[in-house]
Amino acid sequence: MDLSKTRNIGIMAHIDAGKTTTTERILYYSGKTYKIGEVDNGEATMDWMDQEQERGITITSAATTTFWHGYQVNIIDTPGHVDFTAEVERSLRVLDGAVAVFSAVDGVEPQSETVWHQADRYLVPRIAYINKMDRLGADFDAVLEDMRQKLAAKPVAVNCPIGAGNSFEGIIDLVAMEELRFSEDGSVITRSPIASERESEAKSRRDTLIDALSETSDEITNLYLEGAEVPVELLKKELRAACIGRHLVPAVCGASRRNVGVQPLLDAVVAYLPAPDEVPPAKAFHMKKEEDVEVPCSASGYPLGLVFKVQYDREAGPLCYVRMYSGSVKNASVVYNVTKKKRERITRLLRMHANKSEPLDEALAGDIAVIVGMKLAQTGDTIGTEGWPVLLEKMHFPEPVISVAIEPKTVSDREKLKDTLEVLSKEDPTFTSKENEETGQLIINGMGELHIDVLVTRIIREFKIQAKIGNPQVSYRESVSKAVERKEKFEKVLAGKPTGAGLTLRIEPLPRGTGNRYEKAVRAPQVPEEYFEAVEHAITGAFAGGIQFGYPAVDIGVKLIGIEYDELTATPFAYEACANMAYDAACREADPVMLEPIMKVDITTPKDFLGEAMSLVSQRGGMIHGSDSKQTMDVIHAEAPMAAMFGFTTSLRSVSQGRASFSMEFSHFEPKRA
Fold first, then answer.
1. Beta partners for 403?
2. Domain spanning 478-590, CATH architecture
3. What does the alpha-carbon distance between residue 271 and residue 9 come to, in Å, rounded to a whole number?
4. How far apart (Å, rounded) are the C-alpha atoms in residues 525 and 173?
5. pLDDT of residue 466 exceeding 90
6. Can you tell me the distance from the alpha carbon of 38 to that of 594, in angstroms, rounded to the nearest whole number?
7. 282-392 maps to which CATH number?
8. DSSP state at residue 275
């Protein structure tokens, strides 16, 4: 396998920008499918779940492999809806490059900003595809300006449209300086010299491209100053370097629905986005040496891969999507799950094409493959070898903010429902479930009403469990507001044998959004490691149980600062019980507070209803941070407590005659208002 001929890319955007439609065209023109699947008809290859086809949205990130001019392109089509942000997050973690799709009419929308910043966090090089150039109100340059203003990006046009809206007829390739027109099904591209009436604009745009590249390339600067022509190959080479270095974002345009501009997008993917060995080495942590290491992408290295997605298949069991960073794994071999410290057997190795698959003998560094047979693996686990126990950087997922009680209609379905919830939470890290100890109710937690609705529909249809669900409730959190030290002793006679433990904990509040942290700040070489592990296990388990009200605890720092040890009475159970008692008592002394989720709300409304939409947010205790004005619509940016946002859709529709819409995503937790 030639790494330089491989591209691992994701397609990301706001909902309805045309991601899945674009992916369908990519598969068609690269010969992977023989018919174009339309989202609107429920026939998209990548939206293979029944619900995706019914709702016309992408829910899971489907993975597929296709080939273009001798290059292997592994594509992950990610969801655009904020409730499925975990799908985007885990996809970006394993990609080398991404295509950001923008609507030429709507420009940079709220969710485009979210996915863009997620890609920034993982240092993913991007190209921009400005879609829907055939729609009324399409404006290529306005989208580029929007990217500069809202994303702090530096887009450069690599091609530009001929006309816009109804008069959109093709594109101008600014690198080769040609006009491209597409047949009705897009399969035949006619190239011609640039028409005289468009020549000066095309030259001006090409000069802008060369000018932007001269900031990062001395070679182009010298040619530019000499007034010499910049060769096409040099232009492509320097544009590729600037894209991989994340200095510039090459921008192309088209209209996927009309089959215009997709092949030039594919050309841009292979020309400008990096191969797996051109991105910085993956960062990892060596567990034995306790130091950070870098993992270069090489098939000859130790095997190392990341499980970035687990999908349950009724016949095959868990399908583990793995991105290989180093070495290789073979079919029917044994791999070591470094995170779980357990060996697992690969029964089958597959390459996926949406929900179809083909067998693989071996997955090499840079590959994305599916392993069948791993029973313990979860999203975020590292697989490798015992001889080189290296953990890849963990993925970060937002906290679920909404909870619902779920009840099976028959008692016999209860155990089946519990098993199903376990399967679903393995698949989706932002979906959790637990049993309320007092009421015996099963409570499920998710990212929003749509997220919960989709999962409940899967439980009923896919897993054939009849269940009723209650009204959505806000999922609160608990924390502490001052630092406290607590010394605790545990002594008990168990089975006629005295057991005991003693330890001192320090508990302190951490900045909001930090998460929980446990630290062993005591050196006691005479104490066996298993007792320290028992303390850590107790503390990390206690975080989930809350302080006063049973809500998960967040942003708490716990330090073990003292430990008492007597080898005659010490047992792991005693240390675990002692740690639980110390943690519980310290948290209650540390002025516990209840936190509520605050949501970032973006409302898109016609200008006539701007005032009504703003007052609606204010009535619900929201804070308005500002608004953007577009051609026909205004976008209001606000924050509001999650508890106040239930039923907001209905209220917004009624004040705007059904013409306004909104998107909402979790922002942060803050102390609950009285």
1. 445, 473
2. 2-Layer Sandwich (3.30)
3. 13
4. 68
5. no
6. 47
7. 2.40.30.10
8. P
SS3 content of the chain, % helix, strand, coil (to 5): 30, 35, 35
Q: How far apart are CA 503 and CA 200, in angstroms?
A: 78
Question: What residue spans define the domains of the chain?
Answer: 3-278, 282-392, 402-473, 478-590, 596-671
Residue with tokens 């995170």, as numbered in its chain:
339
How far is 579 from 539, CA to CA, in rounded Å?
7
Terminal alpha carbon distance of the chain:
62
pLDDT at residue 53 above 50?
Answer: no
282-392 and 402-473 have identical folds: no
pLDDT in tens, 197-241: 999 999 999 999 999 999 988 999 888 888 888 899 999 999 999
Q: Which of 368, 259, 390, 256 is nearest to 308 (CA)?
A: 368
Letter string b/e over residues 390-428, b meaning 16 or more CB atoms within 10 A of that residue's CB: bbbeebebbbbbbbbbbebeeeebeeebeebbebbbbbb
What are the tens digits of pLDDT across the range 253-263?
999 999 999 99
Other beta carbons less than 10 A from residue 645's beta carbon: 23
Residues 191, 443: Cα–Cα separation, whole Å:
60
- 368 in Cβ contact with 323 (< 8 Å): yes
Q: Order of strands, edge to edge, in the sheet holding 170-173? A: 159-162, 170-173, 178-182, 189-192
Instruction: Residue count of the chain, please give it.
Output: 674
> Residues near 225 by Cβ (< 8 Å), separated by ≥ 6?
none
Q: Which of 406, 426, 387, 552 is nearest to 468 (CA)?
A: 406
In three-state secondary structure terms, 593 is strand
Q: Which residues contact 406 (CB under 8 A, 6 or more apart)?
A: 417, 421, 433, 442, 443, 444, 456, 459, 467, 468, 469, 470
Query: According to CATH, what is the number of the domain 596-671?
Result: 3.30.70.240
What tokens were used for 166? 């109804």
| Closest to 271 (Cα-Cα) out of 73, 530, 482, 37 | 73
What burial class does residue 183 get, using C-beta atoms within 10 Å of its C-beta: 0-12 exposed, 13-18 middle, 19+ buried?
A: exposed
| 543, containing H or E segment | helix 529-543
Q: Is the pLDDT of residue 54 over 70?
A: no
Q: Which of 182, 192, 164 is nearest to 259 (CA)?
A: 182
Strands 249-253 and 97-103: unpaired
CA 409-415-420 angle, to 5 degrees, is 90
CA-CA distance, 389 to 397, in Å (whole number)?
24
CATH 3.30.70.870 fits 402-473, yes or no: yes
Amino acid identity of 58?
A: T
pLDDT at 242 over 90: yes
Give the integer Cα–Cα distance in Å for 658 and 650: 9
Please give the Cα distance from 398 to 89 (Å, whole number).
10
Nearest to 560 by CA among 541, 591, 589, 534: 534
The CATH architecture that domain 3-278 belongs to is 3-Layer(aba) Sandwich (3.40)
